TrEMBL record:
GO MF annotations in UniProt: pyridoxal phosphate binding; succinyldiaminopimelate transaminase activity
Cofactor list: pyridoxal 5'-phosphate
Organism: Leptothrix cholodnii (strain ATCC 51168 / LMG 8142 / SP-6) (Leptothrix discophora (strain SP-6))
Entry keywords, A to Z: Aminotransferase, Transferase
Stored Gene3D superfamilies: Aspartate Aminotransferase, domain 1, Type I PLP-dependent aspartate aminotransferase-like (Major domain)
Protein name as catalogued: Aminotransferase class I and II
Superkingdom, taxonomy of origin: Bacteria
Length: 407
């Protein structure tokens, strides 16, 4: 067996199931789950219609590079959304959701034999982070190194925690903007610094932008390709990954695309050809329809804005939580006087007493630089309908107030 598999840690939801295995939730209350970030809004009917109308495409093997029409639709969306022109033939590649592409990209770009005399290659990740980054690093023969989030800077990653010797060994940097779990968006000046580091040390930047279409501020989140253009750069060593899962409420469709550096995408296509990663033709046709339509995205974003506007104030009365820049999570601090400030105890007791599931923040992070930056926090995925999320918020507030009452 591949010995690198032993380095993989249980996924957060496996740990959550283990944490809750002896808990009997309050049977008097219907269960409400805010634990998993799986969109629950309705899939647009026109996407389902398009998928079913093109099932004849299952009779042929799809090309790994995707249909020209698929690549053109992705490129056209990048132009409309970011004002950035990408070549659909060389700078766009369909992928089966951003998750598998985030993993496969590391296997493409990491050279495990390089820097052996200095401790081996490094992959830098934000912390907390999407666990695929860590697993991709390990199985690519690299070591993940973490930049902790800074609460004083809207939970942006503190890249200053990575020293020059580590940057010199870095082959891949994962950036998540808008971020999971705090929803922070990387600003232009930070992109400028990351690009300068990439130029100096030669590492690839993979920008995970799967939450880009759910935002709460006046302006949509800045994208990495957009930042590069504004800074007068080309896409050298830059790859952006995005998905329809959150944008169009089709996580089961497994559809997204990568865009950016043409040479990296050429090698990525070669890897994917052997990996067997071609997207089914009916899925491509449904995806084309999705990328070409913005009306359903505007409606979806409005649902989230309504939901967050109602839920956030209820929780802000009893705990440290604020409206994020983007994405569909609330990243809340467990009060010190509730469950001893423990995120795991809070999650257990909340499920036991109020039948609401949340994810302990410590499960989304690793101890780095002496701390686990997710400890003492919980992530709440506001993916259910408005009424259900509001009910969950009211139960959480009641739970916290009950914990604070004198015995």
């Amino acid at each position: 067996m591949n010995p690198l598999l032993s380095r993989l840690q249980p996924y957060p939801f496996e740990r959550l199931r283990a944490l809750m295995q002896d808990i009997v939730p309050n049977p008097a209350l219907r269960p409400v789950s805010l634990g998993i970030g799986e969109p629950k809004h309705a899939t647009p009917q026109f996407l389902k219609d398009r998928l079913s109308a093109t099932l004849a495409g299952l009779a042929a093997y799809p090309a790994t590079a995707g249909l020209p029409e698929m690549r053109a639709a992705c490129a056209a969306w990048v132009q409309r959304r970011y004002g950035v022109s990408v070549n659909p033939a060389t700078e766009v590649l369909p992928v089966n959701g951003s998750r598998e592409a985030l993993f496969a990209l590391a296997q493409t770009v990491i050279d495990p034999t390089r820097d052996a005399d200095r401790g081996g290659p490094v992959v830098v990740c934000p912390n907390p982070f999407y666990q695929i980054y860590e697993g991709a690093a390990y199985l690519g023969g690299a070591t993940p190194v973490f930049a902790n989030s800074d609460p004083a800077r809207n939970f942006a990653a503190d890249w200053n925690q990575i020293d020059e010797a580590t940057w010199a060994r870095t082959q891949l940097l994962y950036v998540c903007s808008p971020g999971n779990p705090a929803g922070a968006v990387v600003p232009l000046d930070e992109w400028a610094r990351l690009f300068e580091l990439s130029d100096r040390h030669g590492f690839v930047i993979a920008s995970d932008e799967c939450y880009s279409e759910i935002w709460f501020r006046d302006e949509p989140p800045l994208g990495a390709l957009q930042a590069a253009q504004q800074l007068g750069r080309d896409f050298t060593r830059l790859v952006v990954l995005t998905s329809l899962s959150k944008r169009s409420n089709v996580p089961g469709l497994r559809s997204g695309f990568v865009a950016g550096d043409a040479q990296i995408l050429k090698n990525f296509l070669l890897y994917r050809t052997y990996h067997g990663s071609a997207m089914a033709t009916p899925v491509q046709h449904a995806s084309i329809a999705a990328w070409n339509d913005e009306a359903h995205v505007v409606e979806n974003r409005a649902l989230y804005r309504t939901k967050f506007a109602q839920v956030t104030p209820v929780l802000a009365e009893v705990m440290d939580v604020a409206l994020p820049d983007a994405a569909f999570y609330l990243w809340a601090r467990v009060p010190d006087d509730v469950c001893g400030g423990s995120d795991t105890t809070f999650a257990r007791e909340l499920l036991r007493q109020y039948n609401v599931a949340v994810l302990p923040g410590s499960y989304l992070a690793r101890e780095a630089h002496g701390v686990n930056p997710g400890a003492g926090r919980i992530r709440m995925a506001l993916v259910a309908e408005v009424d259900e999320c509001l009910e969950a918020a009211q139960r959480i507030a009641a739970f916290i107030r009950a914990q604070r009452e004198p015995a």
